[in-house]
Design goal:
Layout lengths: L34 E2 L26 E7 L4 E8 L4 E8 L12 E7 L14 H4 L6 E5 L21 H16 L2 E10 L1 H12 L7 E4 L9 H10 L5 H4 L6 H6 L2 H4 L8 E6 L16 H19 L3 E6 L7 H18 L4
Parallel strand pairs: 1-2, 5-6, 5-7, 7-8, 8-9, 9-10
Antiparallel strand pairs: 2-3, 3-4, 4-6
Length: 347
């Protein structure tokens, strides 16, 4: 596995992203011009990642191919990613005052999505409205339909897709160099993204200041067959992710947020929410019980107990009746946002 990416210091000055004129991006990242309402593209083909244990992004830099200023806050990025071996997407919601403060650097909140969406998807529900007043860059990067926020093992070959490297190396660097991100970061996610949020924070405790999981798959040891079925359902070989749960048990443990919580410093802010799978107040009439959410609630209990024993600053929101659906995740983000924002100086 690669070492943690370097911290954000001494990065080049960002380019001025404006709605009125196009400017050239820094040569260091090879971006095209940015034009309000259009995507600047590059014709260079994305080379396939070579099959080796060294993640490809540590041999070649990612490039920002284009950005689309969709509206006052929303910027869609297209990134040539050696870590993924292809072009990938990330969406950034700009904070209030971003245009008016061209030299100011901003904290970052990553929002990680769940599984099984469309290829290239970066959507995160009603995040734009929920974070409308938050003075931080809100980043929703593509994580793949079943990427599990990991640098895939690929039967011991490693190489693409390397989602962890893409998010914490390539996307992070572009945010710092192009969108004036600083080194104060928090991370939150739902379902598969809840796993990603706690896993990223625990794997890289110096990169993040707070983490939140909403209905997260945060004790993977309780759901090994389910994870393999999710990966298989996307037409992928489940052994490429972390290998066989028995033969590569150590590799599975290295990617289990529950196991890694001990890496977080005492007092680290963690928010964990889940429902018990019974229909709740945000469900439509006639909703049947949700077995997946019930399993994830058990995982939440595992992690809350362990995090408290480790001296972490845990907010446990096991709210009882509630299913694995967007209304509960959006409510959880609303509830967790004050804690996440305070941790990165964006309150």
């Amino acid at each position: 596995m690669p070492p943690p990416p370097r911290s954000a210091r001494d990065v080049p000055a960002p380019f001025p992203l404006t709605r009125r004129r196009a400017v050239s991006a820094l040569a260091a990242v090879g971006a095209g011009a940015l034009v309000s309402g259009s995507v600047a593209s590059a014709s260079a083909a994305v080379a396939s990642a070579s099959a080796s244990a060294t993640p490809p992004s540590f041999r070649r830099r990612a490039r920002l191919l284009g950005a689309e200023r969709v509206d006052e806050r929303t910027v869609n990025l297209r990134i040539e990613s050696p870590a993924l071996g292809r072009t990938a997407n990330a969406t950034v919601l700009l904070p209030p005052g971003w245009d008016a403060s061209p030299t100011r650097r901003w904290p970052v909140l990553y929002l990680l999505h769940g599984c099984c969406g469309g290829a290239g998807s970066t959507g995160w529900g009603n995040a734009a409205a929920i974070t409308a007043r938050t003075p931080a860059l809100i980043v929703t990067p593509e994580g793949g339909p079943a990427g599990f926020y990991a640098d895939w093992w690929n039967q011991g070959r490693y190489g693409a897709p390397a989602w962890e490297t893409f998010h914490l190396g390539e996307v992070r660097r572009i945010l710092e160099q192009q969108l004036r991100a600083n080194d104060r970061r928090a991370v939150a996610g739902l379902s598969m993204g809840g796993h990603g949020a706690l896993y990223y924070a625990a794997r890289h405790p110096t990169l993040f200041r707070a983490a939140a999981s909403f209905s997260g798959l945060i004790n993977t040891a309780r759901y090994t067959t389910g994870i393999q079925n999710i990966v298989r359902g996307q037409g992928l070989d489940p052994l490429d992710l972390w290998g066989d749960p028995t033969a590569q048990a150590a590799l599975w443990r290295e990617h289990n947020a529950y196991e890694l919580l001990s890496r977080l410093p005492r007092g680290f802010p963690v928010y964990i929410s889940s429902g018990n799978g019974e229909p709740g107040p945000l469900d439509p009439p006639g909703r049947t019980p949700d077995a997946l959410e019930a399993v994830l609630d058990v995982m939440a209990g595992d992690c809350v107990t362990r995090a408290q024993a480790l001296g972490l600053n845990v907010t446990a929101d096991r709210y009882g009746p509630g299913t694995h659906t967007w209304p509960y995740w959006e409510r959880s983000l609303t509830r967790a946002l004050p804690m996440l924002a305070a941790a990165i100086g964006a309150a």
